[in-house]
Write a structure and sequence with these properties.
By secondary structure, the protein is α+β, with helices and mostly antiparallel strands. Helix content is about 35%, strand content about 35%. It is built from 4 helices and 8 strands. The protein has a 4-stranded mixed sheet, with helices on both faces. Strands 5-3-7-8 form a 4-stranded antiparallel sheet, with no helix packed on it. The two termini are about 15 Å apart.
């Protein structure tokens, strides 16, 4: 099925927090054709109390363009009615929001698949870097990419 070419795609990279409920309402508004909305919120973990913050950096312009490309692919592949993807940058404390992906579709399976697709590609394809800051004051360095993230992305091929 071809996605809706005019489906709204919202992509933001920002330091400020986001409100998942407000973002979902903004995407759906007064739509009567939406049968499902699926959202994913990624949070900063404290890694068992070891982590005081996670610092996220991105390649400005390129990150937004890549996330937009991924979202447009999801719209087409899953016939989504709309997608929102927001990723935070800067120092983020444990428990705080990092990333939001919302997919709206006529049916639940498309919304679930669309949100998973966007998140799996965002984790591996968008130019973001993570640096750990430990509670004891040590700098944990930059976090390496995970093979498990690559495998999650590859299931969509």
């Amino acid at each position: 099925m071809a996605g809706v070419a005019s489906a709204p795609v919202t992509v933001r990279v920002q330091k400020d927090d986001f409100d998942p409920v407000a973002e979902a309402f903004s995407l759906t508004g007064d739509r009567a054709d939406a049968g499902a909305i699926v959202s994913f919120v990624g949070l900063c973990r404290d890694e068992g109390g070891r982590l005081s913050a996670l610092e996220l950096e991105h390649y400005p312009g390129m990150a937004e363009a890549e996330i937009s490309r991924i979202c447009r692919l999801a719209v087409e592949r899953f016939s989504l009615l709309g997608v929102t993807a927001i990723h935070r940058v800067g120092k983020i404390a444990p428990g705080a929001n990092i990333v939001l992906v919302i997919a709206v579709a006529p049916h639940r399976h498309a919304a679930f698949d669309g949100a998973s697709f966007v998140m799996d590609y965002l984790k591996t394809s968008a130019p973001f870097w993570k640096k750990e800051h430990f509670a004891d004051g040590r700098d944990g360095g930059w976090v390496d990419a995970k093979e498990s993230d690559d495998r999650a992305r590859d299931k969509w091929a």
